[in-house]
Write a structure and sequence with these properties.
This protein is α+β, with helices and mostly antiparallel strands. Helix content is 12%, strand content 26%. The chain contains 3 helices and 13 strands, in the order ββαββαβββββββαββ. Helix 2 runs antiparallel to helix 3. The longest helix has 10 residues.
Length: 195
C-alpha cells in the first residue's frame, strides 16, 4: 500500500488563495496541541475564531486552507471524507468561524483536523533522523517509511519523529483526489529497503 504526506501549506504561489493566521483566538498558549497531535478539545474556545493573514491578500477559499502553523484545516466537505475513512481512530474535528482581513465573518464551513497521538512508522536512518543531546528529535531529513512498521497503519496519522506531519493512506488519498478537492497536495512517500 502507498502512503502520502498531506501538505498543510497549500499553494503559496497563488496569491489569490486565502491563508490563515495562527490558532483560534484565546488558544495561543495551547495552540501547539493541534499541530502536534495532543488533545485540544479541553482548551478549545466555544466560539473559535480564526482570521486571514493580513500580510497575504488572498481571499479565494479552497478545500484545504493553507497555513504556516502545521494545522490541517479543511472545508466541511473534505472533513466528511476524512471522518468517513477515519472511523475507529481518535481524531478531533474542531469547527471555527473564519474572518476576513477586515474582521468580518467570511465562512463557518471549516474545521481543524487533529489526529491524536503519533505512530512509530519511519526508518530513522533512511529518514535522516537526528537526535539531540537531550534525546529528542532535532531534525528529520525526509519521511521514509519502514516496511516492518507499516503493516497496520490507519488512514490518517502523524509520525512519531515528526508530529507536525500528516500521512494519509492510499485509499484516503484516492478519495480526496476523486472528490476534486482544491489546494490539496499529496507527496508520495517511499519505503526503505533496509530489513
Amino acid at each position: 500500500m502507498q502512503f502520502f504526506e498531506l501538505e498543510t501549506l497549500g499553494n503559496l504561489n497563488d496569491r489569490e488563495l486565502a491563508l490563515t493566521d495562527g490558532p483560534p483566538e484565546g488558544m495561543e498558549l495551547r495552540s501547539y496541541c493541534m499541530a502536534r497531535g495532543r488533545r485540544a478539545t479541553p482548551y478549545y474556545p466555544k466560539e473559535a475564531m480564526v482570521s486571514l493573514r493580513e500580510d497575504h491578500p488572498g481571499i479565494k477559499l479552497s478545500s484545504l486552507l493553507g497555513n504556516t502553523n502545521s494545522y490541517l484545516i479543511v472545508h466541511k466537505d473534505m472533513k466528511e471524507v476524512i471522518a468517513e475513512h477515519c472511523q475507529g481512530i481518535e481524531v478531533e474535528y474542531l469547527p471555527f468561524d473564519l474572518y476576513d482581513h477586515r474582521k468580518r465573518l467570511y465562512s463557518r464551513d471549516y474545521f481543524f483536523i487533529n489526529p491524536i497521538g503519533t505512530l512509530d512508522c519511519l526508518d530513522p536512518v533512511a529518514s535522516g533522523v537526528k537526535i539531540g543531546s537531550q534525546g529528542g528529535v532535532i531534525h528529520v531529513g525526509r519521511r521514509v517509511l519502514a516496511p516492518k512498521k507499516s503493516a497496520n497503519l490507519p488512514p490518517l496519522f502523524r509520525p512519531k519523529e515528526k508530529p507536525a506531519a500528516y500521512i494519509v493512506s492510499e485509499s484516503l488519498a484516492q478519495a480526496l483526489k476523486d472528490k476534486g478537492f482544491t489546494n490539496v497536495y499529496l507527496e508520495p512517500l517511499e519505503f526503505s529497503t533496509s530489513t
